[in-house]
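Entry 14. Ran structure prediction on the chain below.
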Amino acid sequence: MREEINLYEKVKMKILEDIKTLDVDQRIPSRIQLAKEYGVTRTTIERAISELVGEGCLYSKDGSGTYVSGSMIAEKGEPNTQSHKQWGVILPNILEDTYPGILRGIEDVASNNNIVTQVCNTDNDPVKQSQYISNMISYGVSGVIIVPSIIEDGNVSVFNEIGEKSIPLVACNRGISGIQSPKVISNNYHGGYLAAKHLIENGYRNIAFIASISYSVSIERYQGYLAALSDYGLEANEEFVNFEDYSSLSVNLDKVNKIGYERVKEMLAKDNRPDAFFCFDDLIAQGAYYAISNSGFQVGTEIGLVGYNDNFYICNSLQEH
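Output, structure tokens:
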């Protein structure tokens, strides 16, 4: 195993030495050519190039190839020690959802590499998002990590500018429409499937789905929920499905929690009521928990409940009840 690691590291350093002789924005040979030149497998080449792209030495153009980046190559061909001093981190709201955990992970890695992070909150406003990115580009950040705004205005010019400047860009939670970039995301479809499957296998049959709004992540979890129902021969009841409108984005956490409470309370008051709830996230599940309890039902026996995201603070809070 160590020999494989040594080989990959040697190939990476060899590629780095070779690209120092090339011009900025010059295309490097194809993976197949490099594999033949260095006498290694294409997998080894892919791994080495992927890391060099992530480090800012190279950048890729979809369908065109891989090119030498200007952000890591100084005038004399030495690594530019200033280029990796600051990352821009853009989140919808640092206080919400899984974002505190995401930021903590970024900060830990940045700290270990002597990198400063600049954090901005967009509140899911695409205009603010574009302004922040423009500012970060002008400040000379060496990389951008973003959880994109749920609301999209179709303006990708600022993201194109990031590409033109050869600034590495990574999207979290969801991708950016019209932009090719690395993404760190969960398998929301499969997670939604597992959540509904768990409820079904515990004897629940009339399972509701409660989400804040309809966007890529909530839709993928909803599709997983539908697939599980179908696989177990159960029909989806449209009356048991709830998506809020986009006005929910302009409110605070208490409002999101209230969505779970009010919608679940309404459904449980009907004669034809669900016997379980799959909630899009733990904030909605928290509201649902109190709605079920206040409606006179026992959570986990009479009425099933599953949240999503495994929010540490919310889960601990509910366990205390």
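The domain at 86-184 is CATH 3.40.50.2300 (Rossmann fold). Will compare against last week's run tomorrow.
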